[in-house]
Amino acid sequence: MKRALLLSSIILFYSFALYAQDCVFYYPKTKGAKLEYKSFDKKDKLTGRSTQLVKDISINGNAISALIESQSFDKKDKDLGKNEFTVICDNGVYSVDMKSFLDPATMESYKDMNVNITSDNLQIPSNTKVGDILPEGKLSIIVSSEGIPVLDMKTIISDRKIEAQEQITTEAGAFDCIKLTYTITTKMMISVRYEVAEWFCEGVGSVKTESYSKGNLMSYTVLSSITK
C-alpha cells in the first residue's frame, strides 16, 4: 500500500514538473513580485512610468494563473489610476486578458458610469518558434450614462508574429526574449492604426515595447526594475 502511494506521489510530481516545464509563463511566479516600467517619447523624453504587481498566484488542475495589478503615473509622478487583469498558462498555452491594454486613467474617468467590457485572451503557445503567426484578439468597451451613449470603442490586435529571439538589456538587467510584432487598430469615431514590437522574457514578462506609426517610432517603454 505504501509503495503504491509512493509510486502515485512520484507520478504526480513528475507530471507536474513536466507540465511546469512545458508551460512558458511570462510573469514572475512569486506573489508580491513587482515590475516597474519607464515610458519615453520618440525624442527619449520621459512621459511617465507604471508598475505591475503580482497580487496573487493560483494553480488549478493543469492551469497556473496570476492576478496582476497595473498602476500608471505621469511624468510628474502623479497617480493616474489602477487596473487589474489576469494572465494564465493552461495546457502549454500562455494567455493574457486584453483588459491589460486598458488605460487606468481613462477607465478612472468612467468609474461612475455604466461600463460594458468584452475582451479576448491573447495567446502565446509555449512551443512557439520564430516565424509563427499567433491568433488575433479583440476588445470592446461601451460606456453609457443614464442611458446616453458616451463611448463605443473597439480595439483589434492583429498580424501577431514571432519575429526573433533576442537579448534585451535595460537598467533592470539583461534578458533573453522573444520578439513579438503586431498591429493595433482602434475604432471610435475614426480609426487609428499603429504597429508594435514587444519583447517578452520567460519568468519576467514584457521587457521592452516600441510603438510605430507608418514605420516611424512614436514611443517606447522599458523595464526599469524588477523585485521578486
Written account of the structure:
- With 228 residues, the chain is mainly beta.
- The protein has a single domain, classed as YmcC-like fold (Beta Barrel), CATH 2.40.360.20.
- Helices cover 11% and strands 63% of the residues.
- It contains 2 helices and 14 strands; from the N terminus they run αβββββαβββββββββ.
- Strands 1, 2, 3, 4, 5, 6, 7, 8, 9, 10, 11, 12, 13 and 14 form a 14-stranded antiparallel β-sheet that branches.
- Strand 12 and strand 13 form a beta hairpin.
- The longest helix is centred in the first third of the chain and has 21 residues.
- 20% of the residues are buried.
Distance between the termini: 41 Å
Query: What is the CATH T-level topology?
Result: YmcC-like fold
Low-pLDDT runs of 5+ residues are 1-21
Listing every helix as H and every strand as E from the N terminus to the C terminus, the arrangement reads: HEEEEEHEEEEEEEEE
Looking at the overall shape, the CATH architecture is Beta Barrel
Tally the structural domains: 1
Beta-strand content bin: over 45%
Note the overall shape.
globular
Sheet with most strands: 14 strands, antiparallel
Radius of gyration: 19 Å
**CATH top-level class:** Mainly Beta
Percent in helix: 10-25%
Query: Which whole number gives the mean pLDDT?
Result: 88
State the secondary-structure class. Answer: mainly beta
Outline of the structure:
The chain is mainly β and 228 residues long. 11% of the residues lie in helices and 63% in strands.
